[in-house]
Amino acid sequence: MNSPVTEGAVCALPTAAPAAAPSARTWRGPGAPERLAILRATRSVAIVGASDNPSRASYFVATYLLSSSPYDVYFVNPRAESILGRPVYRSLADLPVAPDVVDVFRRHDDLPGVAREAVAVGARTLWLQLGSWNEEAAAIAEAAGLGVVMDRCLKIEHARFHGGLHLAGFDTGVISSRRAPA
């Protein structure tokens, strides 16, 4: 389901599923140390639901990952041919590698199917973007031994752990917990 997202959040999903009551969430995700370990062990990321539209969150995240992370980034979208000058694959099964992280920008109802695809291709982690919460998808992935992160933005988490997160969510290039002098 979806959590409240502040207006203009760069990693928010463009279409919202009905929000679940807070008590409906029973799954517990990994804490900050575990998320950092996932990011450190990651070499490749497949963005499922990648878009060539610059106003979409997946495009913004893809741009960030390509410019500010060490990851090999693959795009999955059955309707696009090229995103940011890179090839786009129709499905996870079409990728040339088994991605370490499958970062998902899809509707709520599609998430269990994407989880099954991630399991089938040998991914290590299913990452559901900010605003995405699907306990069925989490159960499918975890039953097959995948790590699961839900309702977190991969771009925000990477920037947060690597010292480049500004209050607005942009990479400042400053590696410090202190504000620059005025």
From TrEMBL:
Pfam families, per this entry?
Answer: CoA_binding_2
Lineage: superkingdom: Bacteria
Domain (CoA-binding) ranges: 38-132
The protein's name is CoA-binding protein
Q: Which organism is it from?
A: Xylanimonas allomyrinae
